[in-house]
Amino acid sequence: MLILVINPGSTSTKIAVYEDEKPILLRTINHSAEELSQFDDVLEQQAFRKQVLLTELQQAHLPMKFDAVIGRGGLVKPLEGGVYEINQQMVIDTHSGIAMHNHACNLGCLIAYEIAMEIPGCRAFIADPGVVDELNDYARISGSPLMNRICIWHALNQRAIAQRYAAEIGSRYEDLNLIVCHMGGGISIAVHEHGRAVDANNALDGEGPFSPERAGSLPAADLIRLCFSGQYTERQLLKRIAGKAGLNAHLGTNDVKEIIRRIEQDGDEHARLILDAMIYHVAKNIAAGSAVLCGNIDAILLTGGLARSEYIVSRLRQRIDFLAPVHCFPGEDEMGALALNALNVLQGKRPAKVYE
Q1: What is the DSSP string of 296-339?
Q2: Angle at 153 between CA 75 and CA 288, to 5 degrees
Q3: CA angle, corner 291, sides to 287 and 297, nearest 5?
């Protein structure tokens, strides 16, 4: 089975081709600020990114004869976890902005569907998109009946890492209680209880710890006053929640390596304070997840790009390793996880769910 995997990010598009479980092509195509500046909206990048992807495949001498194309899932309606066959309704909802968010991950679904439609017999999928919602009833309730809690999180990588950990210890994901923390441009923390993520934060726009690019939870009354201050437009304030927020807002960069260099080589105490505050809030939110499981935690798993940082991981361990064993899985396993999800459907090992 030949499977094409598409994973768009804000400034890059990762692509891979798998023959069953074996990768035969892995590429990260970086997009310059100049290239992307010609587009006013993320979804306008669809044709551009598709063409760049096709050029890469052509240069690798890979013919367009795929059994499946699977894209990183977009921000559509809240869904149960699993693999979904892309249909016209999903495409419509992605274009309509039904989730009120316009993120580059939306392009994964659209490009995968368009390419698959051009190949006879090819199927198009997404798997475990960021809007996977398996929250328990308590977790949905906020302090205002005007708004429920929602989760937007790194569902694909978190679940892949949880399943990988379970396999490594000779267990099943469905038999374990885990707290998984994905640390990248955004930081998501989810409580996995016997195969379901029963609590997770909205890591995109306003909940949980702050991160390199996102504000996390903010003082609600102060935020409301700022909205009516006349100092900012709605668009500008939304960027202060996701984008020009977190470490980026405090220190002028989202590059944690650069921040650590400032701390360790320049003795920048302000940078130390801000980075250590982020670590503090990550640890505090992980600890909060222990209450969801009544303290019955098999392991805490750290993953994402920031899990490569000894500075961050060592300080996190100091605060959370009393809760449960802490295991580190640096980076992410999204490309392999997407390919395996598609392969399992093609081989009849799991069903593809219908998006409605």
Answers
A1: --SEEEEEEGGGG-HHHHHHHHHHHTTTS-EEEEEB--HHHHHH
A2: 150
A3: 75
Which of 206, 187, 157 is closest to 280 using CA atoms? 187
> Which structure tokens are listed for 95?
């274009």
**Which residues make Cβ contacts (< 8 Å) with residue 141, sequence separation at least 6?**
148, 149
| pTM beyond cutoff 0.90 | yes
Reference 51, options 31, 26, 78; nearest CA is: 31
Cα Rg of the chain (Å, integer): 20
Q: List the chain pLDDT tens, one digit each, 356 residues.
A: 999 999 998 889 999 999 999 999 999 999 998 998 899 889 999 999 999 999 999 999 999 999 999 999 889 999 999 999 999 999 999 998 776 677 889 999 999 999 999 999 999 999 999 999 999 999 999 999 999 999 999 999 999 999 999 999 999 999 999 999 999 999 999 999 999 999 999 999 889 999 999 999 999 999 999 999 999 999 899 999 998 999 999 999 999 999 999 999 999 999 999 999 999 999 999 999 999 999 999 999 999 999 999 999 999 999 999 999 999 999 988 999 999 999 999 999 999 999 99
H helix or E strand, kind and range, residue 64: none
Number of residues in the chain: 356
